């Protein structure tokens, strides 16, 4: 399951966060699978997610988002992200989602 949200950061700019978890056999295992990442939109800050959709298909898992780049929402960007899980075993370096007790870290490509 994937969740995308706008998050206001301490410097008053918006960040777009991707949070996901896997359906496991128990609630505990499902919660332990919680992962997240901050999506990088462009160099300019203040982007806000306006609309989004998963692009139907097999692998890779593609997600498209429309972002407003200004307060008036007159400047928009359409971006496509590959949010397929990365099973290489690399550690999740996002400080908001790092868990020292996690065995296998998984993050989007």
- Widest sheet: strand ordering: 1-2-3
What is the number of beta strands? 8
Average pLDDT level: 74
H/E series:
EEHEEEEEE
Helical content class: under 10%
- What fraction of the residues are assigned to beta strands by DSSP? 35-45%
SS-derived structural category: mainly beta
Let me know the largest β-sheet.
3 strands, antiparallel
Distance between the termini: 16 Å
The stretches of 5 or more residues where confidence is low (pLDDT under 50) are none
Helix count from the secondary structure assignment: 1
Broad shape = globular
CA-atom Rg in angstroms: 15 Å
Biased composition (Polar residues): 99-109
Region (Disordered): 90-109
Brief digest:
This protein has 1 helix and 8 strands, in the order ββαββββββ.
